[in-house]
């Protein structure tokens, strides 16, 4: 008997997916950009050179460092109409964007997954209620729904999260319901049923692990959208309230000074675009790596 | 989509519309704050006057009854009185609606004019630089915040180059008598080509802001549909028959490739309704979207409620039309 060379254990699907993801150079680069924004957001108070709320009218609309008319050394990206440092506000603004997006997407994923599992597995009246609710919520243009709710609830960080979650869970729910309907007919679920497992056990222990990767893919895609939503609401003045800096409201702040101070509106927009584009690229990579079947959904 | 699916959608339609009305009513009814207090905010009203106003508005009734009344009124176009304008909400909305519809239609035109040639070209030259550029641009299109894109256009084309006005719909002195509310029609009807051109130049930037991101999405749809059609037997056959390339592309292939595009376009028109609020705010466009945003800050809730309902109902109907159109256009579905 010869000792055979130990075979490497077969990789788990997750490990395989991660390996595929690591091979996608665009996705890796995009993920690094996202990571950079996350780090900026987390360590904002230590990284930002100035207090984002520190106003000084002597610095009003001072130009960025590369412009000839820059008068305030140390304020690299210039100042807004109240003389607040734009760089510091951008760094702190990342906190609002990312925390709203992360909260909304996570809460919506949990609600959507549970509702989708219940609707898809239990069928019957549960499915009818959930599906009608989903249809109804899909009957609103996203922004109209969010604006309507914000109008009624009033602006503020908590209300944005609530307004967006109320619509956002639908997207996860639809995907999970579809996946659950398919899983329901499969042998492993049938086997669990034959063994006498409770519906709760089957949904949470058997089916849930199998729908997690589409949930993850949907969640990352939706994150990009939620960031644009928060920025749009804040732009309209329905989002976070001053003095808390949000990229959307910063763009709005600069609207009256487009002629004299283009940087006030332009720079926060570049941040939104960079972050959203990176998330979209990264999630495309994740989709290809984790779930090639999901090519059609977004 | 099969015929039975169309029937199913037809049955679902009233349910969804009812659900939408429940939510819109709920948004309003569950709002903290008393509408009567808002209405009487600037007047010294006694308790009795407030109570009588509350009774007149039906606010002392149980909530289910109020919903039925709301639904009945909404069906007849009665959305109450706009707190701010002191006129029926319906009237105020009807006045602003043409501006929004005009902007939306021109934006759709921009989207189609850009997307069709781009999509077809990308499908014909698969994997060329054009094709790759199109996917990059589409990704850009969905990642671009609309309000910022509008501001960039203003900065470049209005502030720096001065080619287009910064905002508004028509300059002072170019106004024409209101006929349809659509300025492009009214100016021509009044025999004022100069005013028509000025109205058009005011329309350009907002329409591009709304239309280009839609175009990016639409071009992708046309590209993949066209690529699919170009690989079918009937196109090969048409080419084998010796028909010119152009004839095959535009007469035979494009017709079928446009089926999914029409569907997407109908759905996107609904999304433009939301986008309108942003774009109208950026460009100071006197349409419904801006009216809603202003009304929110004026706490003019009846108007917000009516507009949200109007947007949602339009959106549901557009989606429904998209399904019908798809079934009607697609010979594979036709019965």
From TrEMBL, chain A:
Protein origin, superkingdom: Bacteria
GO CC terms of this entry: plasma membrane
Xref: InterPro entries: BP-dependent_transpt_permease, MetI-like, MetI-like_sf, OppC_N
Main location: membrane
Annotated keywords: Cell membrane, Membrane, Peptide transport, Protein transport, Transmembrane, Transmembrane helix, Transport
Domain ABC transmembrane type-1: 94-283
A Pfam family per the record: BPD_transp_1
Single biological process term from Gene Ontology: peptide transport
Membrane topology listed for this record: Multi-pass membrane protein
Membrane spanning residue stretches: 27-48, 98-122, 142-166, 211-241, 261-283
Localization (cell): Cell membrane
UniProt similarity note: Belongs to the binding-protein-dependent transport system permease family.
Name assigned to this protein: Peptide ABC transporter permease
UniProtKB/TrEMBL annotation, chain B:
Top-level taxon of the source organism: Bacteria
PANTHER family to which the protein is assigned, alphabetical: DIPEPTIDE TRANSPORT SYSTEM PERMEASE PROTEIN DPPB-RELATED (PTHR43163)
Family listed: Belongs to the binding-protein-dependent transport system permease family.
Keyword Cell membrane: yes
GO BP: any one term: transmembrane transport
TM region(s), chain numbering: 12-30, 105-124, 136-163, 203-222, 248-267, 308-329
Main location: membrane
Protein location: Cell membrane
Assigned keywords, A-Z: Cell membrane, Membrane, Transmembrane, Transmembrane helix, Transport
Boundaries of every ABC transmembrane type-1 domain copy: 97-322
PROSITE patterns linked: ABC_TM1
Record protein name field: Peptide ABC transporter permease
């Amino acid at each position: 008997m010869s000792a055979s060379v130990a075979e490497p254990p077969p990789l788990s699907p997750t490990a395989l997916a991660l390996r595929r993801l690591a091979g996608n150079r665009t996705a890796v680069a995009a993920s690094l950009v996202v990571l950079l924004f996350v780090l900026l957001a987390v360590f904002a108070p230590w990284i930002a050179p100035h207090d984002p709320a520190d106003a000084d009218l002597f610095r009003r609309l001072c130009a960025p460092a590369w412009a000839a008319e820059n008068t305030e050394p140390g304020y690299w990206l210039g100042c807004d109409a109240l003389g607040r440092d734009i760089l510091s506000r951008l760094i702190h603004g990342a906190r609002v964007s990312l925390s709203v997006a992360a909260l909304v997407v996570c809460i919506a994923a949990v609600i959507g997954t549970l509702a989708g599992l219940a609707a898809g597995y239990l069928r019957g009246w549960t499915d009818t209620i959930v599906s009608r609710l989903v249809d109804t919520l899909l009957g609103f243009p996203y922004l109209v729904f969010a604006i309507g709710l914000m109008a009624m609830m009033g602006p503020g960080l908590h209300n944005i999260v609530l307004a967006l979650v109320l619509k956002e869970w639908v997207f996860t729910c639809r995907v999970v319901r579809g996946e659950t309907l398919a899983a329901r007919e499969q042998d492993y679920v049938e086997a669990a049923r034959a063994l006498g497992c409770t519906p709760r056990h089957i949904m949470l222990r058997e089916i849930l692990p199998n729908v997690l990767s589409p949930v993850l893919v949907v969640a990352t895609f939706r994150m990009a959208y939620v960031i644009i939503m928060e920025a749009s609401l804040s732009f309209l003045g329905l989002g976070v309230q001053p003095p808390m800096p949000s990229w959307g409201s910063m763009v709005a702040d600069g609207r009256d000074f487009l002629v004299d101070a283009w940087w006030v509106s332009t720079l926060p927009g570049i941040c939104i675009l960079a972050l959203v584009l990176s998330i979209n690229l990264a999630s495309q990579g994740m989709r290809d790596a984790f779930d090639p079947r999901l090519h059609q959904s977004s | 989509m099969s015929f039975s699916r169309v029937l199913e959608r037809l049955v679902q339609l009233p349910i969804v519309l009812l659900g939408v009305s429940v939510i819109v009513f709920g948004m309003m009814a569950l709002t903290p704050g008393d509408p009567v207090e808002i209405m009487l905010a600037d007047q010294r009203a006694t308790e009795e006057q407030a109570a009588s106003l509350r009774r007149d508005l039906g606010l002392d009734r149980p909530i289910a009854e109020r919903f039925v009344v709301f639904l009945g009124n909404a069906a007849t176009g009665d959305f109450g009185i706009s707190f701010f304008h002191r006129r029926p909400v319906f009237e105020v909305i009807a006045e602003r609606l043409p501006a929004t519809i005009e902007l939306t239609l021109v934006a759709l035109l921009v989207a189609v004019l850009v997307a069709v040639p781009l999509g077809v070209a990308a499908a014909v030259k698969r994997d060329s630089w054009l094709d790759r550029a199109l996917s990059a641009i589409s990704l850009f299109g969905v990642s671009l915040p609309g309000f910022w894109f509008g501001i960039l256009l203003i900065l470049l084309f209005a502030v720096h180059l001065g080619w287009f006005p910064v905002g508004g719909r028509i300059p002072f002195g170019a106004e024409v008598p209101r006929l349809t509310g659509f300025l492009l029609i009214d100016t021509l009807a009044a025999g004022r080509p100069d005013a028509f051109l000025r109205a058009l130049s005011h329309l350009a930037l907002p329409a591009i802001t709304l239309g280009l991101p839609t175009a990016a999405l639409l071009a992708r749809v046309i590209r993949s549909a066209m690529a699919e059609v170009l690989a079918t037997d009937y196109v090969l056959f048409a080419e084998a028959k010796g028909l010119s390339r152009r004839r095959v592309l535009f007469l035979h292939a494009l017709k079928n490739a446009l089926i999914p595009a029409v569907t997407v376009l109908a759905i996107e028109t609904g999304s433009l309704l939301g986008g309108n609020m942003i774009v109208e705010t950026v460009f100071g466009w006197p349409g419904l979207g801006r009216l809603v945003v202003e009304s929110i800050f004026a706490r003019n809730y009846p108007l917000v409620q009516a507009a949200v309902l109007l947007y949602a109902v339009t959106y549901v109907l557009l989606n429904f039309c998209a399904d019908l159109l798809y079934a009607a256009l697609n010979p594979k579905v036709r019965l």
